Amino acid sequence: MLFRRRVKEPLSKRVMVAIWPRRTFWRSIKYVMLRVLRLTATPHVIAMGVAAGCFASFTPYLGCHFAISFAICFFTRGSYFAAAAGTFFGNPLTFPFIWASTLAAGHFVLEQFGGAALAAPEVPELSFDLIVNSFSTVWPVIKTMTIGAFPVGIPVAIVCYLIVREMAKAYKHSRLKMLADKQKELWAAQIEKELAEEDRLEAELEGPGDRNR
What is the residue-averaged pLDDT of the chain? Predict the structure, then answer.
């Protein structure tokens, strides 16, 4: 395979790079945003995809954020690539704030609407029923965070949609202007080339005798 590493990186290093990129997060985010803005879709489609990925990051289902964002794009006709890029909103720097906010919001919603309050989880005993006991222990937390993802994630997704849509509009307008200016330069160069060719032909038609007069 072209550009394959001669020495394969160990699994631990590959996992570390997946969690923490070699470049800084800010440089990685700028690179991803540039790729998103260069998409040929409309600003609405791009912004809808990013918003879907952003909202998916607020759900507690790690490893399923791509699938959740793609499902949202299926119904909203957003860009799948932009949705995948939008899931970068959830990263090791933002996850602690996301989880804390969704847990608090879900707990508040359950209390307001008479739902079961989140109780302190009990550590299951080591036994053959560990998987079942672990799921029953973790599920109240997941359920609470899932409920809290809506009042927290939807407003953030709307803000991301508005920001990305305006950025996409500005980028496409600047791109069109640059292409128009480049087209004008090419047109002017073509005119100059045609004029130079006409001058050369006229000089050849005049002949050396006419030039000596």
Answer: 79
